[in-house]
Design goal:
CATH class of the largest domain in chain B: Alpha Beta
Radius of gyration of chain A: 20 Å
CATH superfamily of the largest domain in chain B: P-loop containing nucleotide triphosphate hydrolases
Oligomer: heterodimer
Number of domains of chain A: 1
CATH architecture of the largest domain in chain B: 3-Layer(aba) Sandwich
Order of helices and strands of chain A: HHHHHHEHHHHEHHH
Helix content of chain A: over 70%
Structural class of chain B: alpha/beta
Strand content of chain A: under 5%
Largest sheet of chain B: 7 strands, mixed
CATH architecture of chain A: Orthogonal Bundle
Shape of chain B: globular
CATH topology of the largest domain in chain B: Rossmann fold
């Protein structure tokens, strides 16, 4: 096969998967008949799917950087919970009956910052103690969760009305762009930024180089330690944005939110072509991975498939995505 | 006495490379047989054939007078051939006893049965009857670990033990102890094939020898009938081929100075001065500290002491050297380990070529977007100039042949355009055509007034390409002398004996 064609096919693999899953559920709902077909294909439902995918998508953007650089971050779920708690705490402490725009934005910024600090700590500690990131982030996963519970005094924090509540609301209005939840715009903007960063900046190239061969990166004068710290910090900041979205969804600060979400996010990256051994992955692929999972969960609910089947199906998809990737690699090496 | 093991005309090819062209060798019981040859002469390939790790294409292996085949490492062990590698293969967390019986555990009803009786016999033979059997192996010193490795060979009733550079990681005391052990094994009728670069050791402990060169047996006999000089001659005795293009170049003033460089292990106090347009060859055995020296100078390995100064810049302690700093000073290094360090082989030719100077191709002093078109143009220039055969600059490096991969690594050095270039084994694993291209390139660099350090274990290329040559022996570098004043025999002598 022509190499550029093969490359194009390899890159579009996750996208083909997304289209397949979508058509599959369109077919299933049609076969079931009645309202569910129209419901699944409706613009409103598409907007719902996109909105449901926002949190995992933004989280996946951060983890994509980490995974391409050959690392892993297990603490993102806890970080998201921490962000919701920090935001809610801010709104409750400083807001009256309603929180103004300034306070809302400030609270969101503080939530993002809290996650940024978590990321910074992940990066600094794995550099300082030379411990593999799996262990470090396993630790910070517990620590961030604990701090979230501490701030929230082990309860959900109820907050005054804030503009943040509207970020993830799906307007039932059928007209297209203007009625999309603001969170989707935020996600779209971040996707563009991360895609461009990975493809067109020195930093992006270094991320790939460190994951592909750390020794080479060192040989070429790249300060691997510093770049790693940057990468984890950026991942934390992006996770913080995902945390803002999670807060908007919940409208309360919940220290027990997003338990296990890190695995969903890592799954999105892996489905999208990220390799846990580093050097491979793409932001767009991860986004498609997140969408595949969102379509799947939404479609299963529409068809009336019970929750446990959804879990099994997603598990199968993760394994087959990686298996297909392996086979593709073997074909490239043989060719 | 009847030979225990006899090899006749063993041949082995890897693709177009003929690693073994016909090797013969005979070992008798209770004999220490030295296998000698330069790097790449075919020693390791031969040992792999003997241990069953690879199969020979042709030739005859006779064990105790009967022809036999060694299709797998397990078969080799069953025939009583044990291999002791340079890197020990013990399980560091398991105990002495567990390591000794690893893979040959006796079971009764699925439960491991004690073999303490046999272990006692083996340890008695090794003259270490009191070794604590319950101690984890990692708590023991290198010498004892090696002893356990030998013990493991004896546990499986080995009659031939092959030792590959066993003394390279041992202290002087441990080396002495090893030689005592070897003498005991000899008395017990075990044959030892002993591979070592250190010729003085070889002369001391061995009874017989075989010299390999270019995959052929070129000399063999009894040690007491020969001299070290004769062995060295047999090792290097080849003619200079017409591979080295003469490139006239002038030498200018000094552009690089390093004083008293000490690494964590190696080197021990190296001084180095390079002049503009000088090609300095560094010869020496593997493990002598050549790679460690240039890595310390480039800041890749930690150093203990020393200072360096590039192109009249400020003197800088080697302890504070970092690759990034070195590159900025105009000092560049080509790694000896192309696959694991020199190149990110899964990345493209373009990405590899520009990785060290990437900020140059970005707008806003490295912070803005990359100028991808300009980057590709720069890479295409090197592809043309260095004659890199590739289907395009966006192809991954691992799609190229070894020679072309090495040229990509060289292109990165050229793109950085430093004044002092350290090349560590630049022609290793490279086809002949690419070798000539690389020699030409080194000549061109010198003509452009750059100072080049050329590390190689292949003496003819050092003699053919370099202006001056220095020899490294156990962490110390000799005074450089003009290449024409050296002979290969002299270089070999200094490399193995240090004087």
């Amino acid at each position: 096969m022509n190499p550029s064609l093969r490359k194009a096919l390899a890159a579009s693999g996750p996208f083909v998967g997304l289209v397949f899953v979508y058509i599959l559920f369109a077919g299933l709902t049609a076969w079931q008949g009645g309202d569910s077909r129209d419901a699944f294909l409706s613009l409103y439902n598409s907007k719902t799917i996109l909105t449901q995918a926002v949190i995992v998508t933004i989280g996946a953007l951060g983890i994509t950087l980490v995974i391409i650089a050959g690392g892993i971050d297990l603490s993102v779920g806890s970080q998201i919970a921490l962000a919701t708690v920090v935001i809610a705490w801010c709104l409750r402490e400083y807001g009256g009956d309603t929180a103004g725009i300034g306070l809302s934005l400030g609270a969101a910024a503080l939530g993002i910052l809290a996650c940024g600090v978590c990321g910074l700590l992940n990066g600094v500690m794995s550099a300082l103690f030379r411990i593999v990131p799996f262990i470090i982030t396993l630790g910070t996963m517990q620590i961030a969760r604990g701090v979230a519970k501490w701030i929230a005094e082990e309860q959900t924090i109820v907050t005054p009305e804030s503009m943040l509540f509207n970020v993830m609301v799906v307007e039932p209005q059928p007209d297209v762009a203007t009625s999309v939840a603001p969170g989707i715009w935020v996600a779209a903007g971040l996707i563009v930024v991360v895609v461009l960063t990975l493809r067109y900046t020195v930093f992006g190239r270094y991320v790939f180089a460190i994951g592909s061969n750390e020794a080479t990166a060192r040989l070429c004068g790249i300060n691997v330690t510093l770049q790693r710290i940057w990468i984890y910090t950026l991942c934390g900041l992006l996770t913080g944005v995902a945390g803002v979205m999670q807060f908007a969804n919940l409208t309360v600060g919940d220290p027990t939110a997003a338990v296990g979400m890190e695995l969903d996010i890592i799954a999105a990256v892996v489905i999208g072509g990220g390799s846990l051994s580093g050097g491979e992955g793409s932001a767009l692929g991860s986004v498609v991975g997140a969408l595949i999972m969102a379509v799947l969960r939404n479609g299963c609910t529409m068809v009336g498939v019970p929750n446990f089947v959804q879990d099994i199906v997603i598990g199968v998809i993760i394994i087959s995505a990686v298996a297909v990737d392996r086979l593709k690699h073997r074909a490239t090496v043989a060719g | 006495m009847e030979p225990l093991l006899r090899l006749q005309d063993i041949q082995k090819s890897f693709g177009a490379t003929r690693a073994l062209k016909g090797v013969s060798l005979a070992v008798r019981p209770g004999e220490i047989h030295a296998l000698i040859g330069e790097n790449g002469a075919g020693k390791s390939t031969l040992m792999k054939v003997l241990s069953g790790a690879i199969r020979a294409d042709g030739g005859r292996i006779e064990l105790r007078g009967r022809p036999c085949a060694i299709p797998s490492p397990a078969a080799g062990r069953r025939l009583g051939i044990a291999m002791i590698y340079q890197e020990l293969t013990l399980a560091p967390h398991l105990t002495v006893e567990e390591n000794l019986t690893l893979g040959i555990e006796r079971r009764r009803l699925g439960v491991v049965r004690s073999q303490r009786g046999k272990i006692r016999d083996v340890l008695a033979l090794l003259q270490h009857p009191g070794l604590p059997l319950d101690a984890p192996v990692r708590t023991l010193g290198m010498g004892l670990q090696q002893l356990i490795e030998i013990g493991r060979a004896l546990m499986s009733n080995a009659s031939i033990i092959i030792m590959d550079e066993p003394t390279s990681s041992l202290s002087a005391a441990d080396t002495k102890a090893l030689f005592t052990t070897m003498a005991r094994l000899k008395e017990a009728g075990i044959a030892i094939i002993y591979i070592s670069h250190f010729l003085e050791e070889v002369m001391r402990v061995s009874d017989t020898y075989t010299v390999l060169r270019d995959g052929e047996t070129v000399a063999s006999g009894t040690i007491s009938d020969t001299t070290m000089a004769a062995i060295i001659e047999a090792m290097v005795g080849r003619k200079l081929t017409e591979m080295f293009p003469a490139m006239a170049h002038d030498m200018g003033g000094p552009v690089f100075e390093a004083r008293n460089v000490h690494g964590l292990h190696l080197p021990h106090g190296v001084d180095l001065t390079l002049r503009a347009g000088e090609i300095l060859g560094i010869a020496g055995l593997v493990g002598a500290g050549r790679t460690e020296t240039v890595r310390a100078l480039f800041g890749l390995d930690r150093a203990r002491a020393g200072s360096l100064c590039v192109a009249h810049g400020r003197p800088c302690p080697v302890r504070r050297q970092r690759p990034r700093k070195a590159l900025r000073q105009g000092l560049d290094l080509l790694s000896e380990d192309r696959k694991d360090e020199g190149l990110a082989t899964a990345m493209t030719i373009t990405e590899n070529t520009t990785l060290a100077v990437l900020p140059r191709f970005a707008q806003a002093r490295g912070w803005g977007p990359l100028r991808l078109a300009r980057e590709r143009r720069a890479v295409w220039r090197w592809v043309d100039e260095l004659n890199i055969k590739c289907a395009g600059v966006d192809r991954p490096v691992d799609s190229l042949s070894g020679g072309n991969q090495q040229k990509v690594a060289l292109a990165r050095v050229l793109e950085n355009d430093g004044a002092v270039i350290l090349l560590d084994e630049p022609t290793r694993g490279v086809d002949v055509g690419s070798k000539v291209d690389i020699y030409r390139l080194i000549g061109r660099l010198a003509r452009e007034g750059k100072a080049v350090v050329f590390i190689s274990s292949y003496l003819p290329e050092l003699m053919g390409v370099c202006d001056t040559i220095a020899v490294m022996h156990r962490g110390k570098l000799s005074q450089p002398r003009p290449a024409c004043e050296w002979t290969e025999q002299e270089i070999m002598r200094v490399a193995v004996s240090g004087e």
